Amino acid sequence: MQYYTKRGDQGNTNIITGRTVRKDATRVEAYGTIDELNSLIGLIVSQVDGENLELKDELLMIQHFLFDCGTDLAVPDEKIPYKITEEEIKFLEQRIDYYTPIPVEVDKFIIPGGSPVASLMQLARAVTRRAERRIVTFINEEEKTNRQVQIFVNRLSDYFFALGRVVNHNEGIKEPLYERGGTVFHESFKTADKIIKKED
After folding, report:
1. Domain containing 110: what range?
2. What are residue 72's phi and psi, to 5 degrees?
């Protein structure tokens, strides 16, 4: 297997059917962002341990689903059967419903953070949203594609949000909550100001 072919040196690439498109085409942007997300999940899987170890197999399954998403986005005009269906979407919904009641309910926005793995989950959520935006742009060009992928990716961002909360819960870490009007910042500023004056 040769890793480089030089076929893309002019800024073009071939999709599954052999059709040549630009590397910055909206189709390529869509499945390229899915690939980025899949790589991020690979990083998360490598960091999961302890109380969250059981999540590894599920995240690996998500990686396979994302590979299917990329394949579907790369296929024009249903040249081969699509892979993502309502079944994969229902799987995500079931997992979200399972995870949602585990951490304590909050009535404020959650600032991304907490444990390293939970923080990576929230980063994955943000990248998932970007992938969704790329897919929407692609679909709005009226390209024929598997629209189930868009729904799947939309659910996936909620999945990562729920999972990030569960990871913090499992590790006994309190989630940082958004304080309206920057209360946290102002209090931190006052504390820092007192320390500076004391040192002076």
Report:
1. 12-199
2. -60, -40
In this structure, what is the dihedral angle of CA atoms 140, 142, 146, 152, given to the nearest 10 degrees?
Answer: 10
CATH number for position 82: 1.20.1200.10
Averaged pLDDT of the chain? 87
Predicted confidence band of residue 110 (pLDDT cuts 50, 70, 90) = confident
Q: Residue ranges of the alpha helices (H) in 100-182?
A: 116-140, 148-170
- Please state, in angstroms and rounded to a whole number, the distance separating the CA atoms of residues 95 and 12: 39
- Summarize pLDDT for 14-57 with one digit per residue, the tens: 777 667 777 788 999 999 999 999 999 999 999 998 888 889 99
Is residue 7 domain-resident?
Answer: no
Q: Which residues of 76-88 are buried (b: 16+ CB within 10 A; e: fewer)?
A: eeeeeebbbeeeb
Number of domains in the chain: 1
- C-alpha 34/C-alpha 129 separation (Å) is 10
